[in-house]
């Protein structure tokens, strides 16, 4: 009877619909097909619509003459440069504000975060108010606050505030003396077909290579000192003032090299011209307000992350290092912070990514970052889809790169069980 | 799985329907019952909301004229405020049916951007404005070397500015804003020494400054800026309607047909006027265009002729008080020349 039962069940098994393996496979295949179909349809529809509306397509426009000027730039650029170069200027401006913003936001964030745990009532309350104000205002408003509320009410050029070292502050931004080097610290690159063309003459001019070598040497020596000091402490327990030694090396050697090379630099001071202060270095109000706004805004989130991180370390750890006889400063540095960092780093990464992406809001105050320059390019060429693709690729690359670095840092700080 | 398949097929069919519905703007417009018109977010004289919240201006009235030609009712139009940067994408994507936003007619826009310009509703040229209180003694754009100049992103103005300073070997710092209002505010706050846009725009911006009398428009005109309405390429029927609405406005002015006398003009003996107003026997002019034969009469009833639109919005009847100049009819020494309606 048993065999007959089995025989009867056989036909029921033939219906694949009731086979869990087949079903899960089938659903996945269908999902993939639907996804591919949707993407194919979108791409096909776009191409068809572009063709129908007589809009030229392709990335050839990047080689055309841009025709517009960009005032804030890190590399050589004129209106005769290509659209590609204009976009590179934009990308570098984005990276500039993002990098400076990340550093500043981290510093402010850590200070405020630690301040919120202070035993001092006033410091604690000030930090709380700071966090609650800045994290509850949309970032665009913070940017406009700095631009229109703080920097736009500074005096006109002729009534500039005079600051020490021949610097000036007015509605056009910060004007500082600029250091003009007799050459460059890096050789200039150009592409000769696919081969890089390296020109070392700017580094040779003014013997700047001496300073280059001094910097590299100082870093190497500092690294060596750190290693030896660690070995010695492990072997004998004796400590060595590593920090101060490295600092003297890293600052002292390049300064020595600077004088050895015959001081190959001059200072250029800002002068009053017909309209603006000319000469010297100028930090434009657009950059300054975007930097301050992004830093202050993101710092309020970082402060909360830092506070959570520190509070996440069990109190027993503090009691333990005290019992071992470590001073509070050393204990904080060696016991609490390393453990707090494990909690802090992953959410910190998201904040860094947010800051970078929020830099697109600079378009509202005329800071020429990628989104702004790309927008102008889009408008002058009409290549909407291509420019948007460039936007996505660039921001995605920047974000993925930031994540990669932070994940590496996180892995380094993670709990290592031995 | 059958359901999933149905959904997929449905979505695909819908997609094709969306793609196919793009066939004719006139049919689309008639089906939805109004024209979607892209205008400037706020440029006095051309397109700006008045104190009652109604859109007014030369560019706005042109859209009303097209609405009157299509529906016999100048109010059947909705406006979308657009920045210089968004305007072409809005038109290309079909978000708006007509772009009437002080847009310069250039070959690049006509070809690579896939647009068609329906005529020149305002002949303009780019100029500069400075604050004479803050920078005294400047009375020519050639003295602007080293100045910071506020300009709007994605305009021909931005390109002309670069070319002009380069051609004259002058240094300058462009301060580029996405929105007109942001550029105005920055100039007013003293962020820039000079402001540049089309001259008509300069007069409009001047009125919005905190102390209009301090500001001086410099005499140089550094470019040709023929401003006109644009439509998508590849829809000749709709393009014809926009183009001939413009010519109808000019011909009406030339024939002396105004908002006030349009009804009595219908009984005029002049064959030109009879043809224009669609009262000629057996006329097919309007229907050939895909419209009603009374299309010109409807336009004039709704907005008046070109001269009336001009004077009301930017001319003597407005705070801008701009003279007709090159925008006068060809019969009066200007450039406005309406192609014959016959």
Question: What can you see in these coordinates?
Answer:
The complex is a heterodimer of chains A (418) and B (342). Chain A is α+β, with helices and mostly antiparallel strands and 418 residues long. Among the domains of chain A are: 2-52; 62-141 and 290-413, MetI-like fold, CATH 1.10.3720.10. Chain A contains 13 helices and 10 strands. In chain A, a hairpin with a 4-residue loop joins strand 8 and strand 9. In chain A, helix 4 (121-134) crosses helix 9. Chain B folds into 2 domains: 11-123 and 227-332, D-Maltodextrin-Binding Protein, domain 2 (3-Layer(aba) Sandwich), CATH 3.40.190; 126-223, D-Maltodextrin-Binding Protein, domain 2 (3-Layer(aba) Sandwich), CATH 3.40.190. Chain B has a 5-stranded mixed beta sheet with strand order 10-9-11-8-12, sandwiched between helices. In chain B, strands 4-1-5 form a 3-stranded parallel beta sheet. Chain B has a two-stranded antiparallel ribbon with strand order 2-3. At the A-B interface, helix 2 and helix 12 of A face helix 1, helix 4, helix 5, helix 6 and strand 10 of B.
Briefly, what is this?
The complex is a heterodimer of chains A (418) and B (342). Chain A is of the alpha+beta class and 418 residues long.
Short descriptors:
heterodimer, A: 418 residues, alpha+beta, MetI-like fold, four-stranded antiparallel sheet, two-stranded antiparallel sheet, 13 helices, 10 strands, globular, B: 342 residues, alpha/beta, D-Maltodextrin-Binding Protein, domain 2, 2 domains, three-stranded parallel sheet, 14 helices, disordered N terminus
The top level CATH class name of the largest domain in chain B? Alpha Beta
State the order of secondary-structure elements of chain B, H for helix, E for strand: HHEEEHEHEHEEEEHEHEHEEEHHHHHH
Strand order of the largest sheet of chain A: 1-2-3-10
Oligomer: heterodimer
List the strand order in the largest sheet of chain B: 10-9-11-8-12
Distance between the termini of chain B: 63 Å
The shape of chain A, in one word, is globular
CATH architecture of the largest domain in chain B: 3-Layer(aba) Sandwich
Run of helices and strands of chain A:
HHHHHEEEEEEHHHEEEEHHHHH
The level of helicity of chain A is: 55-70%
Helix content of chain B: 25-40%
Number of strands of chain A: 10
Mean pLDDT of chain B: 88
Q: What is the CATH fold-level name of the largest domain in chain B?
A: D-Maltodextrin-Binding Protein, domain 2
Radius of gyration of chain B: 22 Å
